[in-house]
Structure to design on (240 residues):
């Protein structure tokens, strides 16, 4: 059963309604862009298929240009998909949950991909944590985005630790990688929408993660140094 842990005052309700309207308009616009983009992508694919059997220099040049356009269409589609996720990040379906169970389920899901990239997963789970209110689908998205962020920071493989704990009355999760780390400038900008240090990245992964955590009335912090890895810490209020 969905649970709302907060009683919102009139001003908060007004702001939420304004945000919901803006998010709805933005999401609708993104959907409208995705439809013709799909048509463009399909026709580029058909044109490419017609040219693949050609062997003249002109046909090869045309094929190379079409392949470039197809890649850019895929990139634009990825950005739109990430943007739609960002606009929906505050829409929660909260249920009383065990954070440890959520983390263990995610590890089982992500383990094959981690192994393919030479990443060892090291869980450190504190037992008997109090329950928290989670949107389970969005929490999976948070964990995946952070794991992929760590994966990009460890192109040659490395160690990803997931630690749960109880600190100052909060249920906390640390994700620690042994990757390339971030300098001060990147740390200052990493939660800004569309800022990315990854080639082809949407720049919406970490802003979406923080938005989801804040919608849960939690906090998210980051510690990182170049060549020394990164630690993201998420803390959530327990039920009751």
């Amino acid at each position: 059963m969905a649970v709302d842990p907060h009683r919102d005052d009139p001003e908060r309700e007004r702001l939420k309604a304004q945000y919901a309207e803006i998010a709805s308009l933005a999401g609708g616009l993104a959907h409208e862009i995705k439809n013709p983009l799909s048509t463009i992508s399909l026709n580029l694919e058909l044109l490419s298929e017609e040219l693949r059997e050609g062997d003249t220099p002109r046909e090869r040049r045309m094929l190379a240009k079409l392949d470039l356009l197809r890649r850019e269409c895929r990139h634009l589609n990825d950005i739109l998909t990430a943007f739609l996720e960002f606009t929906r990040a505050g829409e929660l379906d909260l249920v009383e949950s065990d954070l440890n169970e959520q983390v263990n389920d995610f590890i089982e899901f992500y383990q094959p991909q981690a192994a393919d990239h030479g990443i060892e997963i090291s869980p450190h789970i504190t037992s008997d944590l109090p329950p928290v209110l989670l949107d389970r689908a969005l929490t999976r998205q948070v964990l995946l985005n952070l794991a992929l962020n760590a994966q990009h920071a460890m192109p040659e493989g490395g160690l990803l630790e997931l630690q749960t704990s109880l600190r100052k009355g909060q249920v906390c999760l640390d994700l620690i990688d042994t990757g390339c780390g971030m300098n001060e400038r990147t740390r200052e900008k990493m939660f800004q929408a569309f800022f990315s240090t990854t080639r082809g990245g949407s720049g919406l992964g970490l802003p979406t993660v923080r938005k989801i955590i804040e919608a849960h009335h939690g906090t998210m912090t980051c510690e990182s140094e170049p060549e020394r890895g990164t630690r993201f810490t998420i803390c959530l209020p327990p039920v009751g």
The first helix runs from residue 10 to 51.
